[in-house]
Design a protein that fits this description.
By secondary structure, the protein is of the alpha/beta class. It has one domain: Spore Coat Polysaccharide Biosynthesis Protein SpsA, Chain A. Helices cover about 25% and strands about 25% of the residues. The strands form 2 sheets. The chain has a 7-stranded mixed β-sheet, with helices on both faces. Helix 1 packs across helix 4. The protein is globular and about 40 Å long. The N and C termini lie far apart (about 40 Å). The C terminus is likely disordered.
Amino acid sequence: MISGVVLAAGTSSRFGSTKQVFVLGSKPLVAHAIDALRDAGVGELIVVVGHDRAAVEAVLPPDVRVVVNPAYRDGQATSLAAALHDVAADSEAAIVLQADQPGITPDDLRALIAGFHDTRGQITRLRYIDGPGPALLSREIYAEAGHLQGDAGARLLIASHPDWVHEVSVEHRAPPDIDTPDDLGHREADTPPGG
């Protein structure tokens, strides 16, 4: 079984409010990642929450498992560790997505899963034409990934073990992160719930 993990515990300091609940294209930002994982056919959905926990949990669909990261202020790696400690016992790998990259598609994630099944490598990562994308981590490295520190998350693992990485190329540009309200650009955005 492949697990799907969405890291949604951050403070959104550059955005100015809890961006995870900001409504973009008729649904909260965090729901874009959840829907992409669900449509790609993952076996379980985990969302890690921390900052503004009640507001984020309030917009989550009922089929996700919520993992609370009380140490979210210590960096993204703590959220990754919290998720990997809570994946199902039969999880063979986990796709890790951020809550602020709504352009990741189910097709992208299906390509990532197929790449993992082809190689059974420790880390399978998407490679867009202009840079790297999300990664899938195999169960064999859950323990090591669970001991990462800081705000870089799996990037530190990838940098320290490049021989573990198998890349799957997709023929389009990487979808932009939503870090500030200006990043919404031409995207049609509504007000956040209750805002």
